[in-house]
Amino acid sequence: MSETSSSFRQQILETKLPFEQKDQQQDFQEIDQVIKKQFEEQFKMVSQQLENTKDMLIQGQQKVQYDSVWTLVVLDTEENSLYTVKRFYIAEEKKEREKIISQQMLNLAKKEGQSLKDCYDPKSNLKTIIQYYDEFLMYPNYYIIMENCPYNLKQFMDNPNCQLEPGFKNYQLISFAHRIISALNQISNQNNKQTNSKKYTLKNRQIESILVDNLNQIKLCDFQSVEDFINEISHKPEEQNFYYPPECGRSDTSKDCLESLKADSWTFGIYFYLLAGGSEADCYQIRNSGYKKLYALDDNLNSILSKILCLNWQQRLSTKDIQAEFENLLKQYEQIKDQFADQVYQRFEYYKTNNKQLAYRYITICTQILPDDEKYIYQQGFIQDDLKLYEEAIQSFEKCIKLSKQKGKNDKIDNYYYNLAIAQKNQKLLDEAINSYLSAIKIDSKKAIYHYKLGIAYVENGDLQKGIKSFTTCQELDKEKKYHCHYNIGLAHSEKGEWDKAIKEFSLHIKDIAADSEKHECYYNMGNACYEKRQYEKAIQNYREAIQRYQDPKYYYNLGMALMLNKVIFEAISEFENCRYRLQDKNTLHPVYEQLAICYKKDKQFHKAIELYKLCIELDKNEYSYLIDLGVVYEENQDYAEAIKTYGLYLDKYPQDKSIQRKQKNAENKLNKIKRCFFW
C-alpha cells in the first residue's frame, strides 16, 4: 500500500474532547487535524476494530511508558491489509473521576510518530526501519499505523515449532545481528548529517521491541532523541535493566559515552546474547561482573561478543566496528553461498509438506543468500501463497517474471504468470488475476488449466459469458476430462437464470465423474435449478441424491423447502429438523426455525410454531418481521391478547405501519367479541 493512498485521516470525526484548558484545545487543533469532519465508513471500521476487539494479537504484551504494539486487520478501501499499530493511552483522571487528555502523554505519542518519520529512509536499500503510514487520535488513545509485522523477535526465535537446525540457525542469527547493527549505523549516519536536527537512538531497549515482517526480516520501530535519552538516564538511572550499559546513570559517566552511542553497542550485544540462547540471569551477571562465555557460540563469536559487552565503555567496540565484524562473518558464507543455499533448500524440501512455517524460514534464507535465484524465489512464492501471505507471494512471482525477462528466458514465464494470477485472485485482485491468466495463455494457449482458472476468475468477477467461453475452450483442450468444466458452465448458467442450460451441464458433469462421492454438489445445484423452475419433485429427487453422498446442512434445508412447497409438510419438518441437528453454528439457526415454524403453523401445531418464532426473535433481534409472524400465529391460536401485545412491540419500532395497525385493531375486535360473548 502506498503512503499517499494509505491515509487514515481522509475525513475525521467531529467530537468534543476534554482538555485541561481551552487554549490547549485550540493548540491541539493547530498541531494535528484530528477533529474535523465525520469519519468515512472505512475509518469507522478501523476504530471499531481498535476499540472493541480485545483479543487482537498484541506484540509481546509489552507496555513501555504508555504504549504497546498491536497487530490488527484494517479494511482499506482498496484491499484487505494487515498493519502494525502502536497504541498510546493519553487520558488522565482528574477530580470526580473525570478523564481528560493529558497534554504530556499526547506529546509523547506525537514524538514517537515523529521519530518514526525521521528515522525511516525510503531511499535506503536496508529497509530495516519500520515504515510509518499514519497516526490519529481516537479518545482515549492515540494510534500510529505502520507496516505489518506479525511477530516480535523473541516470539520468532522462541517458536518451538519453527526451530532451525544448528548450522542454519547460526546463519540466521548472524544475518539478524547484521541487519540490526546496520540499522543502528544507518541512524548514526543520519545523525551525523543532521547538524541542526534531532539525533536519534534506541528507545525501548528490549528484544521484544524488534519486530519481524512477513519476509522473516527484522524491523526496528522504537526510537527517541539522543537528548531525551541522556535526560532520562540522568534523572532515572536504569541500574536494574540489563539492556542498559553499567555506566548509564553513574555520576562519573562521561557525556561523550552517551553522545557517541556506545550504549547502543552494549544493547546490541545483549540482543545477540539472548538470541544465541543466553538467559536474563546471565545478562544481569554480565552487567555486574563482566562477560560470561556462551557455549552455544563458537570461539570467534564469543570473542566478538566479549568486546561488545565490555564493562569499560572506552574499550567497547563501536557500532561501526561491530558491523564490520559481522560483515566478515557473512563473507564466509558468501564464499560457499551456492553450496550452503543448496543445503538449506534440502531442509526446505524436507519440511514443506509437514511444517510450512519452518519450511518458509528455510526458503527465506535461500532467497537472502541468493536474492536473484528464480528457483528459490518461485518456491518462496508458492509457500507464501500456502501461508496466505498473498501480497508477499505476488511480489515473489512478479520478481520471477522480471528476472526471467532480464535473462531472456521464456520457458517458465507462463507458469510464473499463472501462479501470480492465483495469488492475485486469493488477494481478491480479480482484474489483475485475469490479466495475468491472459498473459500466461498468450505464451502457451494449449494448457487447459490456464483457461479453466481464467474461467473461474471471470465468473467471480461477474463476467459470466466470458467465463463460459473459457470453460468451453478448456473442454476442447481437456481430452482426459480432468477439469470440472460442465459443472462450472452449469453454475454460470444458473447465475444467469438459464435453468435448462444449467440442468443440461450438471447432467453431463455427473456422467463425466468417476468417483460417486464427488457428485453431491452437482446434484445439489441441479436440485436448485429444478427448484427455481418449480419442478419440486425433481428438485426433491436431486437433493436426496446429494444427501445420500454427503450430509451438508444446506442440502437438508433446501430439501425441506422443496417438500414444503410440494405440500409434504410432515417430511419437510423432518428435513428441517435434520438441518437443525447438523448446524454447528447455532447463531445461524433462525432461518431453520422460521421454516419449521411455518410448517408447524400449516400443520396447526401452533404451540410449537410460537416457541420457534420466539427463538427466531431471540437469535435475530433486528429482524422485526418475526414479531408479525408471531402475532399471526397467536391470532390463529385465538390468543388475541398475546397477538395484540406482539403487534404492539412491532409498532413500537415502526409506528406508522398501517397494515399492522389494522392487524392489531382486528385482534382487539376479536378479543372484545370474546369478552362480550362471555358476558352474555
From TrEMBL:
TPR repeats lie at residues 448-481, 520-553, 590-623, 624-657. Residues 28-330 form the Protein kinase domain. Keywords: Repeat, TPR repeat. Signal peptide: none annotated. GO terms for molecular function: ATP binding; protein kinase activity. It comes from the Eukaryota. SUPFAM superfamilies: Protein kinase-like (PK-like), TPR-like. Gene3D superfamilies: Tetratricopeptide repeat domain, Transferase(Phosphotransferase) domain 1. PANTHER family: TETRATRICOPEPTIDE REPEAT PROTEIN 6, UDP-N-ACETYLGLUCOSAMINE--PEPTIDE N-ACETYLGLUCOSAMINYLTRANSFERASE SPINDLY-RELATED. This is Tetratricopeptide repeat protein. It comes from Tetrahymena thermophila (strain SB210).
